[in-house]
Amino acid sequence: MFLSLTRKGKKGLKKRIEKGMGFFLGVVFLSLVLLVFGLVIEVFLERFVGYVAGFLLSLFGYKITFLGGKPFEFLVSLGNLEAVIIISYLCTGWFEFSILSSAIIFSEARKTLKFLGIFCALVFVFFVNILRIFGMVVVILSTGNTQLIFLSHEVFFRLTIFLTLVMGFWLWLLFVKKTEKKNNRKGFKKQRNKFF
Fold it and tell me: Does 161 reside within a domain?
């Protein structure tokens, strides 16, 4: 079937394409800026995530010995099994947070919602990331098969990044829609700002 567009339809399509490109370019640019900033605080991020993950593991009976270093390392042992866990920049969750918070900033919502969204994104990404590290340590210590460890780390890591971004942004869009619907029922004026 052939789709013909009227002038109004063409203008609407052009406007949506421009809006989409503005969103995409804004997210890419701000993500790169945040990633560069993450490199400045890289040591802090690695240590923070390493200490929190180590603390969580110790609550489940794992013996933890912090080794420090760059990237941050800690020794995990359970019975006679032990492994050195390395927390590098990509393990901190800063990559996911940079993209997710950039998408929130460049989405259409009130500024107050965006601040709340960025805070929630930080907590969400941090929580998912710590659980991912916890899961990887359990896999590493429960299996001696190095190929399985490598495969699970590579697949699980990339899958977690993708799912964190998709689920985080989906939850953000649901939250904005629900909040705006609730505010519209209460008689608030619709206040959307384009980008910032």
Answer: yes
173 torsion bin: left (phi>0), alpha (psi -120 to 50), beta (else) = alpha
Structural domain tally of the chain? 1
**Domain that includes residue 132, residue range:** 11-185
Q: From CA 94, how far away is CA 126, in angstroms rounded?
A: 9
Nearest in space to 47 (alpha carbons), one of 66, 75, 30, 33: 66
Give the mean model confidence (pLDDT) for residues 20-36.
Answer: 82
**133 vs 187 pLDDT, higher one:** 133
6 is a domain residue: no
Which tokens sit at 174? 């649901």
Structure tokens at 152: 């699970």
Rg (CA), the chain: 21
Interval 156-193: pLDDT, tens:
888 888 898 999 999 999 998 888 887 766 655 555 54
Q: pTM for the whole thing?
A: 0.77
